[in-house]
Amino acid sequence: MANIKGRSKGKVTKEELKEIQEKQNKINSILIEVGYIESKKHALMHQLADTNVLVEQSKKELQDKYGNIDIDLTTGDWKKTDNVGNKKD
What we know:
- By secondary structure, the chain is mainly alpha-helical.
- The protein contains one helix and two strands.
- It has one helix spanning 14-66; strands spanning 69-71, 78-80.
- The radius of gyration is 30 Å and the shape is rod-shaped.
- It is 60% helix and 7% strand.
- The chain starts with 13 loop residues before the first helix and ends in a 9-residue tail after the last strand.
- The protein has one domain (14-80).
């Protein structure tokens, strides 16, 4: 092997170049996938916000009809509650 540390210019071997290119292509592929996932996440967050608005509208309609109640989401049974906001945390 020739002394290459003293040179200011040179070329890597074909094998080294191929390895570097493969690794860089893998990085690029991962970054594209992350971008896709972030885009999907963004769209889902908008859907979640829209659905939350619809849920709040439904809660308001039910509260206007029944007053302050807790609803069993399995059976549909409800019972009166003193909880003015009707929120459970």
